[in-house]
């Protein structure tokens, strides 16, 4: 089972992160956290790796609906959006919201997952459309 929704951009890392923030905001997702994995691994382990950041994105109405269905669903909310260098391109990855339904088998989560998928797909599509015009 695929658990990710991924697009690749032909843009530099900093520009990609900025564009991802904007695309998510246009779809009602706020960025609550940001983890600079590259800097953390360098500081804690003296390990060098490619640019890699995890954005903690949240759409409060969708999160609320999911949590009302299952309080433990916070473990599976599609909040993490990864932006990382992938060779000479930048990958943008989000957890497929349908994973919530597949793993829990709770049909009540299906409408939430479908809306979250529409919003995430729209954000990812706007990134690739903008990339094609540059």
From TrEMBL:
<feature type="domain" description="DUF302">
    <location>
        <begin position="35"/>
        <end position="97"/>
    </location>
</feature>
<dbReference type="InterPro" id="IPR016796">
    <property type="entry name" value="UCP021774"/>
</dbReference>
<dbReference type="Pfam" id="PF03625">
    <property type="entry name" value="DUF302"/>
</dbReference>
<protein>
    <submittedName>
        <fullName>DUF302 domain-containing protein</fullName>
    </submittedName>
</protein>
<dbReference type="InterPro" id="IPR035923">
    <property type="entry name" value="TT1751-like_sf"/>
</dbReference>
<dbReference type="InterPro" id="IPR005180">
    <property type="entry name" value="DUF302"/>
</dbReference>
């Amino acid at each position: 089972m695929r658990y990710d929704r991924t697009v690749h951009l032909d843009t530099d890392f900093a520009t990609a992160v900025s564009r991802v923030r904007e695309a998510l905001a246009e779809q009602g997702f706020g960025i609550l956290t940001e983890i600079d994995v590259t800097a953390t691994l360098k500081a804690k382990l003296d390990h060098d790796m490619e640019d890699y950041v995890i954005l903690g994105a949240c759409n409060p109405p969708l999160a609320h609906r999911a949590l009302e269905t299952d309080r433990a669903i916070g473990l599976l909310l599609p909040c993490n959006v990864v932006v990382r260098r992938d060779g000479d391109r930048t990958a943008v990855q989000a957890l497929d919201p349908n994973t919530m339904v597949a793993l829990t088998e709770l049909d009540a989560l299906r409408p939430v997952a479908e809306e979250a998928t529409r919003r995430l797909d729209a954000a990812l599509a706007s990134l690739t459309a903008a990339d094609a015009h540059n």
